[in-house]
Design a protein that fits this description.
Distance between the termini: 32 Å
Strand content: over 45%
Number of strands: 15
Largest sheet: 4 strands, antiparallel
Helix content: under 10%
Shape: globular
Number of helices: 1
């Protein structure tokens, strides 16, 4: 399932296999547990020329809300309205922890200003399956002034928001904080004035838009 490459070490060489993310092993013979995503985005007509930065995260339900893998897309309705974005999200461990519940968390920003637009949550059905495919349709609606806020006082170092596609609430953390209730401090590595509000999930490294 991979690409065979000859590696030279001094006077000798050997063949090694470069595996795609969905497979691993000495000969790429084992399947990684993963979520296969196919996503189609749509935006309002007044946002047809707005370039969006979209961050998709595979997270668990632990207090740390650990990010297992992530992907970032850019979307411009005038250019990408017919495109279906596809990507694999992998679990951080092999096998995945069967005692945890996993879900997809998605944040949408306006690329030019990095203004926050909305967040979406998607459950992963049939968690016992090692490989799962999700087909998602996401309508990018509203604007910064229409963000659904809530009054959960537990978001100590952040603000409480509501998902655009669900009554479920989450904490969007301030810079330097992470966790389900923004209770975990960390040192980010973003350039000055480039880091944005954290979502309700922590990262192993800080994520800044380029």
């Amino acid at each position: 399932r991979g690409l065979d490459v000859r590696v030279w070490l001094k006077s000798s060489s050997r063949i090694v296999c470069f595996c795609p993310p969905s497979f691993y092993g000495e000969r790429c013979q084992y399947q990684n547990q993963r979520i296969g995503l196919t996503i189609r985005f749509r935006s309002m007509s007044d946002s047809r020329e707005t370039l969006f930065a979209i961050v998709v995260l595979l997270v668990d339900d632990s207090p740390e809300r650990t990010i297992h893998s992530s992907e970032q897309f850019t979307y411009l309705s005038a250019r990408d309205c017919q495109i279906r974005f596809q990507h694999y999200l992998l679990y951080a461990s092999r096998p995945k922890d069967s005692n945890k519940t996993y879900s997809i968390h998605m944040d949408i920003y306006e690329k030019a200003s990095l203004a926050y637009r909305a967040s979406y949550a998607f459950a992963i059905p049939f968690p016992f399956l090692p490989v799962h495919r999700l087909a998602l349709s996401v309508n990018i609606t509203g604007n910064v002034e229409e963000i659904e806020r809530c009054s959960d006082a537990s978001c100590g170092h952040g603000r409480c928001l509501q998902y655009a596609n669900s009554p479920q609430q989450f904490c969007q953390c301030h810079e330097g904080w992470s966790g389900r209730t923004c209770h975990i401090g960390y040192n980010h590595t973003c350039s000055s004035d480039q880091s944005q509000l954290r979502t309700d999930v922590p990262k192993r490294r800080s994520m800044c838009f380029q």
